[in-house]
Structures are given as C-alpha cells and as structure tokens.
Amino acid sequence: MELTEIIAELENFTGTFPRLALERAISEQEAITPLLLGTVQEWKSKLEELSECPNYFLHIYAMYLLAQFREAQAYQPIVEFFSVPGEISMDVTGDLVTEDLGRILASVCGGNIEPIQQLIEDRQANEYVRSSALRSLMILVVQGAIDREVVIKYFEELFSTRLEREYSFIWTKLVTESAVLAPLQLKQQIDRAFDEDLVESFFFGQKDVDYYINLGQEASLNELRDRKHYTSIEDTISEMEWWNCFQEKKHKESTRNTFGIGDLSLSPQKITMPTKKKSQVKMQKQARRKNRSKKK
To answer: How many Cβ atoms from other residues are within 10 Å of residue 197's Cβ?
Structure first.
C-alpha cells in the first residue's frame, strides 16, 4: 500500500475501521509523518470549513498517530488547532477533547509544558479544551515525565494570579487535580475556590477533597496510574478500534451506554467519534445552571 493509498483510506469515515491502513501508516512512520503534520497544519486555521466536511476523519487519525509517534513537531500545531475560541474545535473532533486531548498533548510535548500552560491560561479558548490541557500536566506527573513540585507550584500560580476568577469548568478541573496532586499543600486555595463558588460541586465536592486528603498524595497518584485517562497514547489502533462509530449497527445497543450517559449512538450525518462529548457537556451545563440557581 503506497502512502497515497494509506492517506486515501484514512481521509474519510466509511463505517469500517481502517486497520490495515493504520498498520501500514505505523510501519511507514518516517515517511508518513510529514503528511500527518501537514494535515493538522492545514486545518488548524480552517475549522469552520472543516465543520462542513462531516465525514472527513484524517485530522483525527493524524493526531493519534502523531501522539503515538511522540512527534514533537505536532505539538504547536495541535495547540493552535484547539486554541480557536468557542466550541468549533470540539465540533470537528467529537470526544477527542474531553477524552484524549490531554493524553495527546502529554504525548507530543516532550516535557516542554510552556505551550500547554499558554493554552490553559488562554481566556479565549474553550473551557473544556483548557481543562484537558490542565489534565495533561497531571498525566506528565503520573508518568514521571515532569516533577510533581513543578506542577504544584504552577497550580498555586493558577489559583493566585494566572487564572481569571470567574466561573468556568476549568476551576472544577483545577480543584479536582489539585486535590489529587497535593491536597494539603493546596488546601487553602481549594477552599477559597469553593467559597467563591468557582467549583461545580455536582462533579467534585468537599467530600471528594477529604477523600484525597485521607488517601494521601502517593496513594492518590498511584490510583491514577491505573486509569487510562492518565496514560500516554501508545497504540492508535487499540485506542480507536472500539469506538461506537466503527461498530456494526447490530452491536450499537450493547455499546450504547459505554460511558453511562444517555444514547451514545452516532448520527450517520455527523460522524464525531465516540459520542460522549455533546451529551456530557450538555449535562454538565444543565447541572451547573440547576446548582447555581439553588445557591441564589
């Protein structure tokens, strides 16, 4: 299979998982990497146009493959791709943001966290993108790629000055990860965030903070090492082959509630990978409105 044939097989969603094409892409890593980089580079400034191509899928394969390859040149283009304001980056990548963006960033950053920090602090970027970028720092700590104290210091700076003190899901993510990383050291900042109503207690409350305090820092990090969401991308095929969009229709019912929320089947008109994102985000926003109205 020539490179052009591999790209052609991966370019559009067909309903069938392109295992052979992905196997060949992986075996041709050196030759295909420039093409994958070119794909991300091409679309990062044309997301509106990409949204008009619902069956286009190459950019998604490219991000997973480049993460598997630990391709440092993909780092900045991926950050720029997800720095676009609004939900457009989520619309064209489906669950990639809420499920695996943090893992992809951790896989390509090479230990350089500055672009990740810039994305976290970008007020124009989507709150779920920023939250996933924040998770990538935890992944790097869990994987031993950066020192825990570096991230603790940075989290302290986010709490004190670097993060805008207005309600956003990134505050819930910051408190969640801080409670796992250093619950005693960051307890004062965590408590202040709760006091200022910056945290969505529907997803993470004071009882959760107490749980991690009792568990201890080392045990908390060890617990994360067993969770897929805190690992790097190692194998694109095993990451993607189980997605609902690649399952036969007769199996949709059995895989519908993989994530435990609502109907996870895909619309044939809009292929957006495993389908937790839109329903998850909608549920989160509804829960926020409900909780905040109660507090008023």
So the answer is: 14
Residue 145 · residue 111 · CB < 8 Å: yes
State how far Cα 30 lies from the chain centre.
26
- CB contact at 8 A, 170 and 204: no
Whole-number Å distance between alpha carbons of 86 and 55: 21
Query: How many Cβ atoms sit within 10 Å of the Cβ of residue 296?
Result: 5
What are the CA-CA distances from residue 31 to residues 7, 69, 76, 272 (Å)?
12, 12, 20, 28
Query: Vertex 25, ends 21 and 27: CA angle to 5°?
Result: 115
What count of residues does the chain have?
A: 296
Rg (CA), the chain: 19
CA distance 197 to 165: 10
CA–CA separation, 183 and 211 (whole Å): 10
- Whole-model pTM? 0.85
Residue type for position 53: C
**At 166, is the secondary structure helix, strand, or coil?**
coil
The pair of structure tokens assigned to 238 is 């095993």
Give one word for 111, left, alpha or beta, with left for phi > 0 and alpha for psi -120 to 50: left
The three-state secondary structure class of 59 is helix
Q: What CA–CA distance (Å, rounded) separates 26 from 31?
A: 10
Q: What is the mean pLDDT of each run of 10 residues along the chain (296 residues)?
A: 94 95 98 98 96 96 98 98 96 94 98 97 97 97 96 97 94 96 95 95 92 91 89 96 78 40 29 43 51 50
Q: How far apart, in whole angstroms, are the C-alpha atoms of residue 233 and residue 117?
A: 20
AA identity, residue 271: I
Which residues are 85's β-sheet partners? Answer: 125
Helix (H, G, I), strand (E, B) or coil at 252: helix
pLDDT at 141: 97
218 backbone dihedrals φ, ψ, rounded to 5°: -65, -45
